[in-house]
Amino acid sequence: MEYNTQKTQLHLPEYGRIIQQLVERCKELSTKEERNEMAMAIIDFMGQRNPQLRDEENYKHKLWDHLFILANYDLDVDSPYPFPTREQLAEKPKRMEYPKLQGDFKFYGKSILQLIEKAIELEAGDEKEALIEVIANNMKKSYNVYNKEHVTDDVIFRHLKELSENRLDLTGIETLEKSKIYYTGNNRNNKGGNNNNNNNKNNQPNKRRHNNNHKNRK
Questions:
Q1: Secondary structure element (H or E) that encloses residue 22, with its range
Q2: Which residues does 68 contact at the CB level (< 8 Å), separation at least 6?
Q3: Do 123 and 177 fall within a single domain?
Q4: Mean pLDDT of 156-165
């Protein structure tokens, strides 16, 4: 019996032993024309064995990279793509930078920072003031949703000033103008009015029955 530990190491186990053996056979061919022909056949076979790769971008390029890895970086064929090196594949990915919004301000989201930068770039005028008000209103909405509590305008103004590095300052304004974004008092009143109207309608049949009974007694 031949154990797997006695066989050639599988460089990419997901392709299986058969493709690994085909690649080894391709390396042993004497002419480059034969190796090129067999390499193309192996690429087609690899694509059939792993159809999920076809949904990925540049999947042919990935198959050729995998072929070179299966050959242990030693395969003399004409590839339509440059083969990767050991150093490139061993290189660690760059460390991802964390978002700027952390701690107390993370619930505002990246879009708020982008709007703040846009407002800073605008020249002083009505457009800039309108954008700043939109930013403050959305900040207040995000704060109320995340913290599930009411926040005063002066807190929003301080946060806006800090996030803009003192370039947008609303701390001299007393309050924000009422906005549909976070003021729901009118909606609640309307709902209450509708409920009162419904109650009045429901009570009308009772009044009619009471009047009819009173007539019958007479």
A1: helix 16-28
A2: 75, 79, 83, 84
A3: yes
A4: 88
Query: Do 171 and 122 share a domain, yes or no?
Result: yes
What percentage of the chain exceeds 70 in pLDDT? 72
Among the residues of 50-168, which ranges form H helices? Answer: 59-70, 86-90, 110-121, 126-147, 153-163
d(C-alpha 28, C-alpha 210), whole Å: 105
Question: Does 12 fall in a domain?
Answer: yes
Same domain, 128 and 72: no
Note whether 78 and 100 are same-domain residues: no
Range of the domain at 17: 4-90
Average the pLDDT over 194-208 and give the result: 48
Residues 66 and 103 in one domain: no
Rounded CA-CA distance 167/44 in Å is 59
Other CB atoms closer than 10 Å to residue 143's CB: what's the count? Answer: 20
Longest dimension (CA), the chain: 121
Percent of all residues in the chain with a pLDDT value above 90, rounded to a whole number: 15
pTM above 0.90? Answer: no
Q: Interhelix angle for 110-121 vs 126-147, to 10°? A: 160
